[in-house]
Please model this.
Amino acid sequence: MTEKRKVSPLSTAAILSLSLIAMGVTAVTPAMATLAQHFAGKDVSWISTLPTLFVVIATIVAGSLMGKGVKYRTLAITACLLYLVGGCAPAFFDSYSGTLICRAVLGLGLGLLSPLGNALIIGLYDGQKQASMLGYSTLCMNAGGIILQMLGGSLAEMGWNYTFYAHAFCLIGLVMALFLPEPKKQAPVKNSQAAGPKEKVSAMVWIIGILFMLFNILNYPIMMNISVLFEVRNAGGAAAAATSLSLFTVAGCVAGLVYGKIFQFLQRWSLTLGYALCGIGAVLVYVGGTALIMTLGLICIGFGFSVIMPTFFSWAGMVTPPSTVALAISILMALMNLGGFASSFWLKLLTAVAGENIYSAIIVEIVVFFATAVVFVIYNPLKPKKD
Model:
């Protein structure tokens, strides 16, 4: 059986639309220089990073609510409204502190939204269909990130405040949320013999979440410092670095498109492939003296991560009871976002220990990614449970 229930094409599109708008934080990334110029003397990096803190908080809240006291559809609509208000409101006034408050509201909306799509996929699909849908979700997430960054950058040319109108892209998700399906609830067990302790999220979910967090802690420095590497190596400067980062996302789209076939063919080896590609990509970025070599490295990392992420979600769906899947996906998304925030502390630690945080960060990333790939050669995370 490939589906747990019949899902209409419109409902499928509604599920994928949630992933399409999931990278809302990145809409302001191309406009950071413009915002820094307007808010002179202020630390505008908070405009980009503050939402991630609230994403972590709201993601856990979403996991405890969806499919229980609150319907997926209701939660998605609420999330999209917060996203729209928090994302677009700074366009209507000129206040740094007010903008930060709005960014916090945006983070809450994104946090409520981020686990919904993958939780629905795991709740509604099985087997190869589930793997394909998780891949398409990753494709939509990357494609949405590209669209949002293009919108943000283009609108910034018209004025610093116009950047925030890019978040109106969320209207697609708001409309499509009206057509979200609801997974069937499990019938409550009535006999007293089976009325045991309440099902809990598997401890393995936390391990998967820690792997997610570790990936972001180690990989974020490359993404943050790639423009510096291009500049230092006379490889084309900021424009070339931006192109490379775009191709990183495009590679993620391609991986999402073909992930179903990759998983069907490789199964347990999907994680080995993903981590090996990321390790190879980090090596290319480290040794590359030209824009071409470093770009190839970013492409490998983008493709590898977009294989790792849906495999992690499949793994979580296999190891935790069905009634806890929504909370499990929320935990994974929360820890993944926490990893991005914690990477700044990792960079400070590297600076204290190694005296710099660019090349040393890449070396650690290479070692850890290849070591993890070897671990998944030995350990099969997708081994079916014995009855």
In short: Residues 187-195 have pLDDT under 50 and may be disordered. The chain has two domains: 9-179, 203-378.
